[in-house]
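We recall that each integer encodes one residue's backbone shape. We quote one record:
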Amino acid sequence: MSTVRAIRREMRAARLRSRPVQARRERSDNVYLVLLGILIYGGILVQAVRRMIAVPPAGPVPPNLPVAQWLFVGCAVLGLGLLIRASLVFGPVVAGGPFQFWLLATPLRRQSLLSRRFWWTVVTAAVAGGLFGLASSALLRADSAGKLLSTSLGAGMTAGIVALCVLFQANRNEGRDVSTVLTTVGVLTVAAAVFVTPPVIDLPVVVAAVVIFPVIAVIQAYRTLGTLDRAALTSGTEILTATRVSVSWLDISMFTSIAAARKWRRIGRVASRPIRGTGYQAMLFADIRRLSRNRTAFLVWAGLLLTPYAADRLLPQAFVPTVQLVMCTIAVSPFAAGLRDIGRSAVLRRNLGGSDAGLRLVHLVAPVVSAVAWTLITSPATGFVVASLIVPVGAVGFAYRRATQPPTDYSGAAVDTPFGMVQPDLIRQLVRGPLLLLFIAAVQLYL
């Protein structure tokens, strides 16, 4: 029986025989783009890593080092839980149409076919986790041993989580329970660090608790690659393609629409009840009904309540309202789903009837109420200063600007700059909303 390596070598040779000039030119272009990306982005990455390593441990240490340590641990556990949820949405091992049609249908060893994809995914996750750990230790003003330890832990834990997701993928277990447990533990750890003075973390104990798990998970996941069926390998192809297109076209709506469709398909069935009222009143009740079925929006809204209090214990008081503004914007965004649907669909507005201003005002009720309530609950962290009064205005203004943004226009004039061809009109469309948030944050610093 032919091996996977022999099949790949024969496919490359057949491509060269069928299109010798085009294939060589395409390969040369790919090599050039890869080398250019390595030289540019790799150089920037190397310089950033060298600067973070060179940061001396002496200097302004966080005022509450135990709080900072426990916040880091809680955010790391929370991030791992969310990483499991995101990895299971995408795969993490994914096989596209040509791959599954031409190779997965053959009697070749599936473990050999998928090993390259698996190891690339694990290495990428390990590099990203290591950089996150290095950046966190640099912010905490750790010494060289602390930076090495934090980098190793970040790399090992992210690689282990990706391998664990592969095991869930092989066993048809969505892993949602594990993700929920980790997310809950992370939120409780952050809450304990914010409202209670925790002890200093004994780093050797943490290392002993997490150093063995990634190695075992990666080895076990590699052994189970052969048990991945075609249904498990192709479940994330749709959303992965949408993500690539969204990144290429700088339009996140392509990704969010498919993610929303998958979420409502997972819910599957809801209790149907008549909507009270008529006209705008019925639309308001319909928007509230839709939000009541979106538990994730309320969980995100409640979880972000801790962030201003954490900033109050770690950052200077002048920056706490800015953190409150940014977190309030993120918390309010899920409640503006109806506003986005209305603002981006002229057909829907014509079918519902009424004026455009009336429809938008009705669907602004949920974002406004959620923003005001969130600000009132988190205002003790800022001391009820004047800067916190404009937080709901900024959050709702950002949501409204993004929801009423017209479709992206790519036909604007391009300007030749040292960084390449740039479309000023495209940049103006991308900063619609974030620019308003930046202006309000600047105003807060002077209040």
Remarks:
- The chain has 23 helices and two strands.
- Strands lie at 415-417, 420-422.
- The first strand starts at residue 415 and ends at 417.
